[in-house]
Structure formats: C-alpha cells, structure tokens
Amino acid sequence: MSWVPIARLLADGRPSADSVAIRGGVGIAFGRFQADVAAALAQLEGCTQAALACEDSYLFAVGLLALLHVGAEVMLPPNTQPGTLGELGVPVVDDAMLAARPAAQGRFAPLDAERAKIIFHTSGSTGAPKRIEKTLGMLQREAEALHAVWGAQLGRGPVLATVSHQHLYGLAFRLLWPLSAGVAFDAAVDAVWETLLAKLRGDAVIISSPAHLGRLAGLEPVAASLRPSLIFSAGAPLSIDAARASQAILGVLPTEIFGSTETGAMATRQQSEGDEAWGLLPGAEIRLDAAGRMAVRPPYVDGWQQTEDLVERVADGFHFLGRADRIVKVEGKRVDLLAIEAALTALPWVEAAAVVALPGLPTRLGGLLVLTGAGHERLRASGPFQFGRLLRRALSAQMEPAGLPRVWRFADALPARALGKRHDAAIVSLFEASHP
C-alpha cells in the first residue's frame, strides 16, 4: 500500500472499498470514512477551536480530520473527565456528536500541514496543565520516521491497542501511522487482554504500555499462527519481567519507545537481559548538561528540547537514570505530583499535602496529609479506609485514576530539612512498614 500523508489523505484518496478501521470485527471502508468526515465537516463549519474527546478511535479520526479541514485548532485534553473538559473553555466534539449525523458527500482540498495545529495538554512542572502545540507537519514527519524504521513489519494489520489516542503516543502509533500506511486500526481500546487476544491474527500490531504488558502473566500462550508482528510499549520503562512475559505469551519481545509529547519518539530498545541501553532513532540527537539532564533534537521538531530526564551516554544511545522533576509515570501516564498536592490542599479537610511515588513496580502514589479540624473529624467518623475513598472521589472529577494516591498517611506536620525544604526520603519512609 502506498504512503499518503495525512494532509493529502482525503484529497488524494484510496480505493473506496479499502478498510480504514475495524469495529466489532467489521471493516469500515475508506469511502465511508470520507463520507463521515464530510458530514462532520458540514456540522462543524465555522468552528475555529474545539476539544476533541472521543472513546471510539474511528470517530476520533473522523473528528480530527473534520476539524483540521474546517480550519479549526484541535485541542486534545489529557483525559475525558468532565472537570478537565470544562476547564478548557471551548466546544467539545465527542462520540455522541460525531455518531449522530448521517453520512454526506464532499470534495477535499489538501491541508496545509504547517498551518494545521493540534494542541496537547500535559502536566507541567508548576502543577497547571502544560500546552504543547504541534503542527500536522510535525506529526506527519514522525509517522514517516516510524514507517521508515518498522514499516516492513507492519503487514496488513489490524493495529490493536490498549492505549488511548488522546495522547501523542497513541495518536502517532495507532492512528496517524496506520492511516498514512493504509493499514486498518481497531476502533476499540482494549482495557483487558482477553478482548484484544480474541482479535489477534498473525500480522497484527499491538500498541501497548508497561501497565498493560505487566498484566500478561498467567495467560495462555497464543498459537504461533496468531503471534503479532510487532508490539510497542511506551510511557515508562518496561520491566524485564514484563518483556519476558510478552515473549513467552505473545511470542514477541516488545519494542520500547522513549520520548515525550514535546519531543515525539526519539529512542527505542528491546530488552532480553534487562536494562539494555536506548538507541536513538534515525536523525535524533541528544546532549547533556552539567547535571546530566538530557536535551533532545528530534528530526521532526525544530530546535533542542530540554528534558528533565537524567541519562548516561553510551555509544549510539543512553541509559535512563530517572527524572529530575516532580513528574512521574504511573501506568504509562504522566502524573504531576504538584498538581495532586494542589488539588488535595484545596479540599476542606487538608491543611498540607505531600504526594510521592512509592518504591517498587508497578509505581503507586502515596499521600501524606496534614489535616484541618474538619479533616480530623471526618477521619474519626469514617475511619482511614473510607476517608481515603472520599479523598479519591473528590479528586476524580479532574484526574484520571492513575493520578490518585492509593496509600494514605496522616501526620501533624510534613517532614522537612533545614531551611524548610521538604524531606522526601523521610516522607517515603513513613509508607515503608505499612500495608497497601
């Protein structure tokens, strides 16, 4: 299948009967895709900015192309929680809106890839959502780079996924790359392996994460004829146990991707022994500052991008040593500890809060709280377990489950070093002797 950039996909077209996506085992033809985008475009005429928040990946692709062709700036919220969408202050294009219109016919001109904009929102170091602007051209160049490295293994699909398309990794790997390459993607996000494995065939590609690959243990190995051609993992380093479980059960070692929303994919590795070095993707460059923090110059983004990743250089790549800031990865998602602390201290029961990543895999968050008088009363009335559930419910309107602490401790004051600097090691030690 020939490569067609997203900017020209609807203008240049593909054979009308070719499948773009699969829903419930049934292919959705390219001709239907064009008609659905045309109908959505007519509905969105005059829109200049909108948040795109869909659970169904096919409807997301329809909404994305429609918004870009109508000239709108597309905002991708980090999650589809009502509180998050409300904070963006723009119209929301969702599954219900896109599924409720009849197909239409239309003619499409090529998009200007350097003017079409997609805005991502990720956790920033100040606790407020960080706006990261990408052009469609940047995303196209990343998709082309992925195809140059792994296109020969892509086969005819389908592309299956356990991760959302709302983030750059899912958008690039499970939607934009397949759309340009002419490979069908599955419309559903499979939250559990049982549903994904039922769709497997020998030339499938799986887009996954450490959080999901870590749950393979105990499943029966798939038949050799059903083994996928590729398994990708991104969002956090994969444990060697999860890599080996993938090879034992799915017959394939995962291909790990290192990158960020700012940089895109910039390094890769496969683990067989454990903690193998990351190798740079073609065209990517890195440099280190005096503190060992890595700056990246990917081939699809202009200029150097400073990161908070601490690394050690090796030939043709690096070893990852950890993060220098307060953003951690939980279940493959960026979680800003400052934002959680700010949300906790806004509650009437909390005077001060410290949120830390607890040792071990999978990563869990612990919350150490100094309570107000009202908080002490609620804790006495409900007990620690129910009070912890109350805190999680209060945070859930604006945060995904990955960003919610699972272990709670209560203290009269937060441990501090000289000059009032918080003592994180002492905070973590308060969780060590306790049960989850």
Superfamily at the CATH H level of the largest domain?
ANL, N-terminal domain
Q: Give, in spatial order, the strands making up the sheet with the most strands.
A: 8-10-11-12-13-14-18-17-16-15
Distance from first to last alpha carbon: 51 Å
Helicity level: 25-40%
Description:
- There is one protein chain.
- Helix 2 crosses helix 3 and helix 6 packs across helix 7 (168-181).
- The protein is of the alpha/beta class and 436 residues long.
- It contains 13 helices and 23 strands.
- The chain folds into two domains: 6-282, ANL, N-terminal domain (Rossmann fold, 3-Layer(aba) Sandwich), CATH 3.40.50.12780; 328-432, GMP Synthetase, Chain A, domain 3 (2-Layer Sandwich).
- Strand 17 (305-314) and strand 18 form a beta hairpin.
- Helices cover 31% and strands 27% of the residues.
Concise overview:
With 436 residues, this protein is α/β, with parallel strands linked by helices. It has helices at 9-12, 30-44, 57-69, 82-88, 95-99, 136-150, 168-181, 193-197, 210-213, 240-250, 337-345, 373-395, 424-432, and strands at residues 19-23, 26-29, 49-53, 73-76, 92-94, 117-123, 129-135, 159-161, 185-186, 205-208, 230-234, 255-260, 264-269, 278-280, 285-288, 293-297, 305-314, 317-323, 327-330, 333-336, 350-358, 364-371, 407-410.
List keywords for this structure.
five-stranded mixed beta sheet, 13 helices, GMP Synthetase, Chain A, domain 3, 27% strand, 436 residues, 31% helix, alpha/beta, ten-stranded mixed beta sheet, 2 domains, Rossmann fold
